[in-house]
Amino acid sequence: MSPMQLKKGEVIGLPIRRLGINGEGVGFYRKQVVFVDGAIPGEYVTTRITEVQKKYARGEILRLKKPSSHRVKPPCPIYQQCGGCQLQHIDYPMQLRLKRELVEEAFSRYAKQEMPTIRETIGMEEPWTYRNKAQLPVRRQAGGVVMGMYTPGSHHLVDMKGCLVQHPETDRILDIVRQVLQDLSIPLYNEKKHRGAVRHLVVRVGIATKEAQLVLISREDPLPKEDALVKELHRRLPGVSSFIVNHNPHRTSLVFGEKSRVLWGEEKITEGLGKLTFRLSAPAFFQLNPSQTVRLYDTVLNVAGLSGRETVVDAYCGAGTIGLWLAGHAARVIGMDIVPEAITDARENAAMNRIDHAEYVLGAAEELLPRWADQGFRPDVVVADPPRTGLGEDFMDALLRAEVPRFVYVSCNPSTLAKDCNRLARGGYAIRSVQPVDMFPQTSQVESVTLLERKNQ
Questions:
Q1: Nearest to 23 by CA among 101, 77, 121
Q2: Is 56 annotated as contributing to ligand binding?
């Protein structure tokens, strides 16, 4: 039978075979893939088809005919509407198992050269209140100030008052800022009209240092009623060490604009990670789960196989975190990034931690690596932690051209990880191991550390 026989509104019985990359259950009906939000592998559900496309269909659960023993009641009251988490209805041990299976599925589908060893997912002892940063849109709805997450696939903002995966201090700060904006009648951004001022609230807390930073993303700079706003924020939030305004005047989905200005306090806050200390500017990238970041970086260190004699290149170095974590076990660390502020932060962090054999260069790894190779320089180990889109062909070509002996790939997207590994395997790399790490419990995201080595080294 043709898989196109499925019709919108049709009700079917469906066995759920696996978890999808976005946390939905995946089943097959007459060879057509069907995604069902909230369904768990092993369940049999009665589902109504809500959408039919050429290659897939979507459905909603009408009845759980065979519920999973791993199904639990989500503790968050707005779990179904918010969209920030996707797996709260699954017990945590099963979440870890499913995340490993997501990585396995990606390699099975995209890595045609070889199937690597994929280890058990490294989880957390307490998989709640772990996020050190909140970044939420803020709007005025029904006469009040609303901040939260957009319902998936919509521009409907779900109001959040307390989030179970956020650190409690971020929730406390956000709630007070919301009230200040309300009390002072600060103009908030209207997306349709492209008017108003404050668009997003960004709060980052230093878990180890107890420092905190508030960033108001605004279409206007200076802010309306700026002096009164800063005075009231400082009065109600005396423990916050940094108030920043970031100017983003454009119609864009990007949160941060190009320019930031200190309203009060320090330009940067400090965070500790293991024995290291980092200074973080408002737009600087830093892992959102510090306690699990230690496990992630220890995994990188373990698979990198450093003896103290190696030169390590930290591509996409950001504030220098991974390279500095490895520096005590390497002879030389070279980091690179295309963001000038990141290089400034990385240099400052190296100096602050008294690491004098780490250097940082402004530029793209895909340009610098082959140039250095032409000059006779070849690093022993390259580490990369790219965005979700993966490495890019230029970077992989540079890696292959430089014939780097060991490459450690930190990935937050199993699909691009597997595709990139397949490309590198064709170019002469062997995929030695893949270690999933649960950086974001209760969500479908899974981080992985993959070791690749040049064959015949």
A1: 101
A2: no
Query: Tell me, what CATH number does 391's domain have?
Result: 3.40.50.150
Does 90 fall in a domain? Answer: no
* Domain-embedded: residue 84: no
The predicted-structure confidence for 319-344, as pLDDT tens digits, reads as follows 999 999 999 999 999 999 998 888 99
253: left (phi over 0), alpha (psi -120 to 50) or beta: alpha
457 annotated as a binding-site residue: no
Find, among 370, 387, 388, the residue nearest to 379 by Cα: 370
385 appears as a binding residue in the annotation: yes
pLDDT per position as a tens digit, 21-52: 999 999 999 889 999 999 999 999 999 999 99
The catalytic position among 82, 163, 317, 412 is 412
Taking the C-alpha atoms of residue 368 and residue 398, their distance in angstroms, rounded to an integer, is 8
Residues 209 and 312 in one domain: no
Whether residue 257 sits in one domain with residue 144: yes
- How distant, in Å, are the alpha carbons of 27, 161, 175, 217 from that of 140? 40, 15, 15, 15
Helix (H, G, I), strand (E, B) or coil at 103: helix
Please check whether residues 262 and 359 belong to one and the same domain: no
Residue 85 among the catalytic residues: no
Whether 172 is in a domain gets the answer yes
Give me the number of domains the chain comprises.
3
Please classify residue 376 by burial: count the beta carbons closer than 10 Å to its beta carbon, then call 0-12 exposed, 13-18 middle and 19+ buried. Answer: exposed
The Cα 31–Cα 54 span in angstroms is 12
Q: What is the pTM of this model?
A: 0.93
What is the domain range of residue 64? 3-71
- Residue 189 annotated as part of some ligand binding site: no
Q: Are residues 390 and 301 in the same domain?
A: yes
